[in-house]
Amino acid sequence: IQVWIPAQSDSTRVKNKNTRDFVNGKSLLEIKLEQLSKAVAVSNIYVSGNSQDTEEIVTRIGANYIQRPIELLGNEISQKILFQHFFDNTPTSDYVLWVQVTDPFFVDFKGLCAETPPRPYESIVVASTLRKHGFYKDDPINFCFGCCVCFIGFL
């Protein structure tokens, strides 16, 4: 099994989001690589990035760094084109995990790697439920104070 991680540094909202300190002096990329290394051989992890910081983290951990060309940067790049970039730069594999650095909540990669998609499906999608209220600059981001919209069906 191979792991493919897209990790461009040019976020439009958070500068260097994948490589800046996130928690306990570790970046999101370092956290994700450590989680994955408990389930998959590090030599089977491929990170596509475009910064020296990303390359340094990936090579320090022993994973494979793929330099992403400038034409594959930005939020307008389709997943299909990005998949092709990985296909062109990695050995053939029966199974591939497509992992986002920005999801630090999913950690059961060992359990996931033990699964194979049931026929006729060819992929498994992972989602994490987070039941917390989030704030940004003292404003709620996933709820509003005093809103009753969710209770309309019960009135």
Largest sheet: 4 strands, parallel
* Rg, nearest Å: 18 Å
Strand tally: 8
Helix-strand sequence: EEEHEHEHEHEE
> Percent of residues in beta strands?
15-25%
Using the alpha-carbon principal axes, give the shape: globular
Task: Note the gap between the termini.
Answer: 51 Å
If you average the pLDDT, what whole number results? Answer: 84
**Poorly predicted segments:** 148-155
In which order are the strands of the major sheet placed? 5-4-1-6
Helix content: 10-25%
Count of discrete alpha- or pi-helical segments spanning 4 or more residues? 4
By secondary-structure content and strand pairing, the structural class works out as alpha/beta
Could you characterize the architecture of this molecule?
There is one protein chain. By secondary structure, the protein is of the alpha/beta class. Helix content is 23%, strand content 17%. The protein has a four-stranded parallel sheet with strand order 5-4-1-6, sandwiched between helices. Strand 2 and strand 3 form a beta hairpin. Helix 1 runs parallel beside helix 2. The protein is globular, with a radius of gyration of 18 Å. It starts with a strand and ends in a 15-residue tail after the last strand.
